[in-house]
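Tokenise the fold.
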Amino acid sequence: MKQDPELATFDLHIYMNQGGIVMTQLNTLFTNGKIGAFFAAIVLYLFLRRLRITLIVTLAIPLCLFISVAAMYFAGDSLNLLTILGLVICVGLLVDNSVVVAENIQRHFYNGMSRQDACIKGVREIGLAITTATFTTIIVFLPALLVEGQMRFFMMRLALPVVTALLSSLVIALVFVPLCVYLTLNRWPLGQAAWPRQTAEAFRTRLGNFYEATFERFNRWYNLTLQYYLRRRVDLAFIFLVLFCVTYFHTFREVEFSVDEKREESQFNVSFRFPSQFNMEDRGKYFDRVEQIMEERKEEFELEGYFVRYSTWSGSLEGWFKTDRKSDVPPREMAERIFKLLPEMPGLKIGYERRREGEEKQDRKERYYVRFIGTDPIQLDEVAESLKPVFENQPGVLALQERQDESPNEMALVVDRDRANSIGVNPTTLAGLVGSALRGSSLPRFQNEGRQIPVQVRFSEEDRAELADLNNFLVPTEDGRFSSVGTLTRPAMLNSPRYIRRTNKSVSHTLTMELETGREDEARKAIEAAKSNIDLPEGVSFSSLRKPFEMEDILTGVFALWMSILFIYMLMAFLFESVLMPLSIVFTIPLAAIGAVWIHYLTGINMDILGIIGGILLVGVVVNNGIVLIDYANRLRREGHDRTTAMLQASQHRFRPIAITALTTIFGMIPMVWSEGGEMGLSYRSFGLTLIGGMFSASLFTLLVVPVFYTLFDDAREALTSTLAGVFRRRRASGLAK
């Protein structure tokens, strides 16, 4: 830059470097992934109590991640915040299939089977179930093709790493894990083993005693509780219904939803509204003072950067704090101090955006908007003004909010249309002449030695300095003569609007009503009833307001969530060849929702876009335990066990893999909840909390709720079958009688 003579006087200053922010985010994700993998390995060893099998299952994590990264490379994707987040998510999910297979093989082996028979039977028993469970997790990304906006963007970026990693984990669990387990399984009697093996066996014995005293005792308690509620199924269904209703009608409504809460914590924005008597020079001088204050206090406030901008009527000051702040003063309080230092002037309105957003957040439920659309802005203003008393007098309406900004006074040349028409002057031609004289007209660019120079032509300064000069401008008429502007127009000072709002290419006008707290629903119904009784003039109509981006994202997430549940149900119906049996597994989804809602409520952390995506992913994860449980129970029933015995035995045998998969996922997400995520980056807290709370509650109740509802739907199936069989028998008997 300094070598170019035309740019030598310019100084280059980097006021914001997003590269450092991105690198901080990437390092945070990598660290979270490594810590999560370490915790997952500890949990695996606690339950499996075999170092070799633990290493086999744990090594499946990096192998699946390498395969996923290779797939991303060949697909042309990159390692960014979202794709790495997808890989971190997989840390807790990739071991699920391998754990179930390894645990099943190990159980058969220690029950007396040979290594080969244990591996073959262990995989054969569990293969279809874990395949279906894997595809239920993958299928939750399918609704991303049906939605738009941020939800589609986030889900599509997460889909490739998660899907490829899960598919590779399925292949590894069905092919490589059985082979590795076969090579490592052995029985070493304690007395005949060498000293290192004796030490390892002694440690495993102590670990086994700890497991027996804790988790195995919990397993026995689960089995006794399940045995109790299988005799009182309606009682458990009622408890579950009450818990879900309390969660939905109370706790869920207390949880706040936000889109980018982390960004609000690290930035501030101040808006300025100038009175009409301020010209551009006055505004420039004012913002020079603002810049001077910010530059003098930049180090004190630990600002990474700031910038100011202003236009004809408004301006703004935006700043952001350093990511490595040393001050103990919160960013919110620091922004308040900056706000108080800004100079005040008569007529100048300064708005602190954070404070205003907080007020709007509280008042959002207490406002109602009525929008008119038409073609004439003057007519819309008249209609809105005439209808103000109608809406103000509705029950529950406190007042109508008026626009606070004053409309500027502007000098206008009002055309005498009758005279202009009589001498053949087109008002459009007249307006174009005045505009070209004052602002100028652009000509084709001048080409000079490979450079393009913009060219503009307009009247000289002395010919357009006074209103009298403007009146002397000549306008051509249709018969070839000329008439002066002064003979066709008259000057006037008009109160003109600063802007004209348009909606779908139509002019719009919006009335904002403040509603009384506690009577919002009553006021909305009264306003809607009043709107239906109003006869608007021709060309004017009511229009529905477009939902805010936050609400659109939330509704899109809800739609994607319901579509994921539908796809998962269809997949399970295909597996079990029944439309009723999968319903018992679907009840794990509201169980997960209970935990996800309560953990946000108790921690006070808002639900955001990533939290909703975590909920969608959770839908595909929590059904896995139910699928494995019901599949095993059905296999026991086919072997001749009665339904109650099959459910009790399946619940007892599947307790350990369910606990392992739940704890590995939960511990894998804990570092993500602890991390700050960078001052201006994405916050992963809501995402991690959703998975932790959902997995905890779903795993806690799955072994009770799923078996009970399984028996209820099984009874419903038998009753429906017997009823239909009776109907067909009567029809056949009636036909034979005839």
